[in-house]
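Render EAL domain-containing protein in 3D.
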Amino acid sequence: MKSEGGRSRVTSGSLMALYVCAGLLWLWAQEWLLAYFEVTEPQSTRWQISCFVVWLLATALAGGWLHRRKRGAERLRQETVQELELVVRHAPAGMARVHVGGAEIVWANAKLAGWLGRSVDSLRGQDFRVLVPVDDPQQVAQLMERLLDGSSDHFQVLRQCVHATTGKVTPVLCTTSRVAASGAHGPMALVCVLQDLSEMVCARDAMHRSETMLRMALEGSGNGVWEWDAREGRLNLSSGMSALLRYTGQDLARDFDFLQRLHPDDAPLVRLEVEQALERGNMLVSTARVLCFDGMYRWFRARGQAHKDVHGRLLRISGLLADQTASREAEERRRLAAAVVDNTIEGVIVTDARSRILSVNHSFVRLLGYSEAEILGQTPRMFKSGRHDKAFYDAMWASLYATGHWQGEIWNKRKNGEVFPERMSLSAVKDAAGVVTHYVCMFTDISAEKAREQQLEFLAHSDALTGLPNRTQFARLLGEAVERAQVTGRGMAVMLLNIDRFKDVNDSYGHSIGDEVLRHTAAQVQSALRAGDVIGRLAGDELCVVAQSLNARADAVEVAERLMAAAGKPWTTPDGLSVVVSVSVGICLYPEHALSPEDLLQGAHAAVYGAKSRGSNAWCFFHEDMTQAARERLALEARLRRALDLGHMRLYYQPQVDLATGRLVGAEALLRWLDPEQGLISPARFIPVAESSGVIGPLGIWVLNEACRQGQRWRDQGLPELTIAVNVSLHQFLLTDIVGATTQALTESGFPARLLELEITESALAEKPEEALFVLNRLREQGLRLAIDDFGTGYSSLAHLKRFPVDLLKIDQGFIRDIPNSADDMTISSSVIALGHAMGLKVLAEGVETREQLQFLQQKGCDCFQGYYCSRPLPAEDFARLLEKERAGLPQVEVQLSEADLGA
């Protein structure tokens, strides 16, 4: 039998006891055999000898067999001991036998002694715990307790072997087991086997360093590592991916769905690239926009490789993810910058630090005429114009060296030799060390700008059409002339020349011919000036002359007549058409009439109106009454504007009566000015001022609105409906939106369009018949009634007149006033009535004041009339009484004629 450790449990004493027992048993067996076979005395000796021989042979065989077994066991033991000794001696691990109590080393192998820098013999009796220390003694104590109480048969801890001479530390893994010191029940001992972990620790440190360097490289490059595990369907992401994707949660792999976060425009291409990479086994390279966790799309580039098993099944895909947003934006900025440079209208040159040209843009080639190949490697000195001296260039480079920038105007030369001005900006480009590496020059051709400046300079002081000094320059020259006259005491005159009927020239021949006539007239007048005289153009058809050094009025008249004669010279067109104009001259003398330049000009303006009142080609001296009249017109204009704002304007209404029945059919709205100081001001006084000043526009709109509002108020009161006629001035009809104003007035008031009648003068229709026809058609589309006022006083063409969509002709009161005393007026009135009826129009006579006039109009078949015979114009409240009378069915006037009247 053997013990658990492989050693036999049969001792020598056991064998001896076993042999004695076997001998005694044999003796008993011998006695039993003798008794069993009933051996007699003589035979017993022989039987005993035979049994002894058998015993002797049996024990000899048993002893031989046991000796043979012992020799085999000894030989096996020696081999085992030898093997164990070789293992202990040559094993790569350190070994030691240690007592349990004081941890003294019983024996140790050479490997352990080498690590400790000692001999094997010197280790015996040394404290193992001191020579091979452990990091955590408390942990070792707990493990030792478990080993000794049988809870475990070994334990492992990390220890350090410190070389006694060099101090080198060898990290080891110590496996400790318990054994008996000697005999089956001898004292416990420990066997410690130590494995060298130096290479493992070095490999681990190297791997840790590699991982650290790789992590730093990835973090430094801004890349993240990703891996798709196809077998487990799991996405593994590095820590750097959170920063790339702006993720702040706890589990990026769970929350990140790549396909869902792809930009919709990029998703199809990415899927195609992935499929192709998997199919062909190529490297996956894909760039797309991904929705980050901050809600922003950013550009990323994914690079990866698929890994498959031997059967071609996909195991995983791993790779890197890099944020390309900044690089793409930078590339886009570079592309845009390059596009801007290439397409800018400014020429751009880039040179090196030695001013050698490296590149130019398209505008440079266009502006200077050189091709890029002709100038690369050259210096900008080849563009010098020769207009700048050395000091100019020295100052330019001094500024560039001092500030790194220079900007200014410079003249350069094109390839064809043309010298041109340019506005140039030159900048130095420096590297991180502050050393100039390049120069960038941008320039713009300012030839056109210089030409415009010269033109503006000319226009600032000269008239563009005639080349004469303009109003501003003439005022300056006039001021200088007045200053000289004050010093010398000599007289002078300011003469304003206004071309007579110049509007007729423009209307007859066109504005281009009118300009030529004006230019010709100005040249003729300028050629007739004396030495020292000054001429300028003040307005469209106004020229002004300063005649200096005059002694008397006769001298001024002589100069004026010479100028008038020069202006009267005909101008002939290239087609042979001769155009002759005349001028009216207003003369204001210094110092007789005025002393200041402003007063002299004002006096000449006033005087020219006096000259025009005498007919064409006349001159007139200024007198104080002219200025007073002009001042009164200006004052009246200012008061008229205030009156409109303050509500001083009123509408009066004059009845329009049917000649057949005497009943009220309409009313003409007439404007009145109720001034708080002067009372009612005559329309003949303020209407011309309103026409000339432009106030007639807002004034006409007020009349239109007020007439519609009043008409609707009468309707709301249940009074009979009637047509309200409103006069429209020439300015309002042709120069304002009369259609829009009428629509607004009707809409705001609610007054029916069929009850509103607009009266347009015949002259307004003759002024611009085509434009008038367009406006009248738009008004008729609204349902208005249209009337031609003062018919017979204008010069309208019947061919045009029949095209106008009018409803009523109004005979001017000038043709009614002298009936029946004027045969001409009676003939004209009869013709107008007949013409109107022939054209299907109603006819109304204005200014009827007598019974005889009424009888005549009835005899000629006139439809309606208005005038003092029926009523003067009345305020709205008084006119309402006429409407009450009409509602009662009473005629406004008695229109029944007797047979005697009809006979007359």
